[in-house]
Here is the input.
Amino acid sequence: MKRIHKESLKEALKAWEEKYRVIAPRLTERDERIFDTFDEAWFTLDYAKPSLPLKHALFPQSEAVFQVDQGIYRSIIREEPALLFGIRSCDLKGMLQSLSFMSKDFDDRFYTLRAKNTAAIVMACPGQQSPTCFCTTTRSGPWADGGFDLQLYENGDSFLVEIGSSRGEDLASSELFEDASDPAAREKVTSFRRRAAQSIPLVPEIEQAMEKLRTTGAPDELWERFGMKCITCGGCSFVCPTCTCFNVSDRVLTEGSGERMRSWDACLYAGFTKEASGHNPRHSQALRIKRRHEHKLLYHGDRDTHGGLCTCVGCGRCSDYCPVHIGALEVARDMSAKIF
Amino acid sequence: MARIPTICPFCGCGCNFYLVTEQNRVVGVEPSPGNPVNKGMLCAKGWNSYEFIHSPKRLNTPLVRKDGALVPSTWDEALGLVASRLRKIQSESGSRSLGFLASAKVSNEENYLFMKMARAVFKTNNVDHCARL
Amino acid sequence: MTNSINEIDDAELFLVTGSNTTEQHPLIGTRVINAVERGAKLILIDPRRIPLATYAHVHLRHNIGTDVAVLNGLMNIIIEEGLYDKEYVETRTEGFEGLKKTVSRYTPRVVEQISGIDARDLALAAREYAKTGKSMILYAMGITQHTTGTDNVKTCANLAMLTGHVGKPSTGVNPLRGQNNVQGACDMGGLPVVYTAYQKVGDAPVKSRFEEAWGVGGLDEAPGLTITTMMEAADRGDLKALYVMGENPLLSDPDVKHIERALSNLDFLVVQDIFLSETARLADVVLPAACFAEKTGTYTNTERRVQLARKAVEPPGSARADWEIIQEVCSRAGYPMHYADPSEIMAEINRVTPSYAGITYDRLERSYGLSWPCPNEEHPGTAYLHKDRFTKGLGSFLPRDFKPLAEPPDTEYDFILTTGRIYFQYHTGTMSRQVDILEREASEPLIEINPEDARRLGIKNRELVEISSRRGVLRVRAEITDRVPRKVVFSTFHFHEAPVNILTNPAHDPVSGIPEYKGCAVRLRRCA
Here is the structure.
């Protein structure tokens, strides 16, 4: 355990910048909080939960994966070292789950190499960051229990720093970090965690919904009601820390040259499952919504959830940003209200 | 990587988002969570709006019709041709023989300037746009 | 919009007409759904069973083009049953007696004959709209794209004023503007009769103000030509040159064969665009422009909110921002322009545009935009219009009588074609069709046909259908659906493979110049 004064944090970030591309929370001219390339003048610690998870650091919304020029193939893998400062535990859990998925069966090098070269500094949540947070239910927060390089716990005018890896050891090796291996510091972390966990209410409907899906399933009427309302924006997938589906498209750049793009896709779009014959196994929006929620709450048996309850990490963004309130929370509550 | 605030080009709602850029290339969008119009949400067009920006089909050089076909040209030639032909037609057939179609897709500043061009420079009120469509 | 988007959240009733809101203004449509789920009522007046219909308490599926009759019918019941806002009518409006006289002719029986709307449904809608405190009218091009578009709009305004549903929060008459900057293009004087902020070209003091501001003499006082009349003039040979910026009339305008002939007849056609559109292919000079991501500028959304968009990346090749191109053309034509960046243009707009006077870049950079009127730099902007008085004092009732479609169906052309947009595409598709996912979701033009009509004509789902009007013929695949009523077919203008505007009628509203895209006579048959 180490300690760093809040005042020294910018110094540490600047030092890390020499080796890493640092992504950190910042203010905007309009007083929004977003994550972007570290900028000392706009850096802030006053942020809750960014509207997008940091999955884009490993899996950008679109990227060229290879180019072909006059018959010569060139794969494009970006692996420059990056450092994510201030990531929340729910988002880290999402990344860990995605990394397992992206390296199982087939090694998706575009993802895994980037993941390997990306350092994660988690900011443990002192409490619920928004009314939709339910990480205590999904066992993915409010602090990370592994997979990070450093984890910061706010403690008055300083942060206690938990070291999670040898890269973390290195990141916290400068004189800005004081030793804090005393029992009092350990006790501070324990009480921080206890307070934080207590402030995020458990949502029993999530486990009830999982049980329901495992046994009888939810009635069709429920999915049809949600399906009717859905406007097919795809936002639930785009804001989800564990959604990694992508579309592949080729484009011709000039005569004899072209590139293959991959870009975020969403299972709520009809074309996502449409087959070449025109047949669509998930032919209605109701079925597509059903499948999406089954993927989050039911089909995780063969996935490494890194200690999480399921492949939903309880960040609540699908509830925050669905224009018609079809998030995991609403679906689970609806399911359990009808049944239990 | 940088995030630049913009307004969705796809309808009159005026949703706010950031364009996520990487080395002069837009790689995605991030909805603005704090604005009062879309509050961090987007529709399918908004979420996917970044893609056409770098379409290889974008026009990247002026074209001038020569011997019946449009061929690549220079700005100097194209702009000179536009100014001189419009002036010539204006002097031969009058200002009202010129027409200008402004655009419901470009900015206010550009529409203002376009309207000013029609009225102040070429002295015609024949200026309209596709508001009706 | 007279009111603002956020006010939708507090409305108690919506009258949505001629707007497929969830598909065309999705982030407004979803607010309507959410409000209905919280207890607000929804009256829908639309011939098609659009997605919002599921949430409607009353869905009036009127015959196409009978909007004035339906709206007058609502007012007839409201006056007849004494449900109108007498105080509001007395203190805020004029011309009530004239309105009363006109709408008295639109009894429920008469309206039923014209529009096909059941008298009981009409009465239910009238009572709910009038009695509810915060009733908001939302409309779009289903109202305006008619030869009676102006009448339709005025009749909506009559209804709102009659019931006192205007000039208050969460009420009003709220047109939803289709393209990202239609509102701004109008505000900036991209219209043949006005300078910025609707200052009339025929108004002598206005003219001299602009002559002074621009340092020129001899500005034309006579109204110019609308896009539709420009095409007619080009066809006749009176219009000799056309400069088109960021539009594609060859797909978007009615009767495209006529447009093609008109454009080909020009001596000189300039097209400034980001793609080589169908129109650009006919041009003498094509100027490559920067797209929204490649330039800084402001856009005015449907609620009059002026918002700033920043340049994120460089344009491709040697493409330039539209303002830079225009500046160069003007300079070369002997009127030098020296704007260093768009903020300098906005500073000039501030000086000549009373409603934009307080909308500066300095303020926009630090805010989420300002809604006009915003007359000075201290003014916070205006969420809703007509609060204590109308622009000209009292609000005038402008009663209108029903007029039928310019081209009603007959025995030869027995169907009505109505056109619109679909969710995954935008306008003539120049941008949206370059987006792989959008193109995947909707890559093909379809024509919606009612199942009964399809059965009668022997047309199966996805079969090719030949559809013809007095202006042209088109082949397109059928989508058999009860979204459309019998004897009505629906298609879109997004696809160059099947340009539906080959069929549409260029007959237009005499005031607004808007063509009747929402109804022309066609016939269909199964392709052999």
Notes: The first strand of chain B starts at residue 2 and ends at 7. Chain B has a mean pLDDT of 95. Residues 60-93 of chain B form one domain.
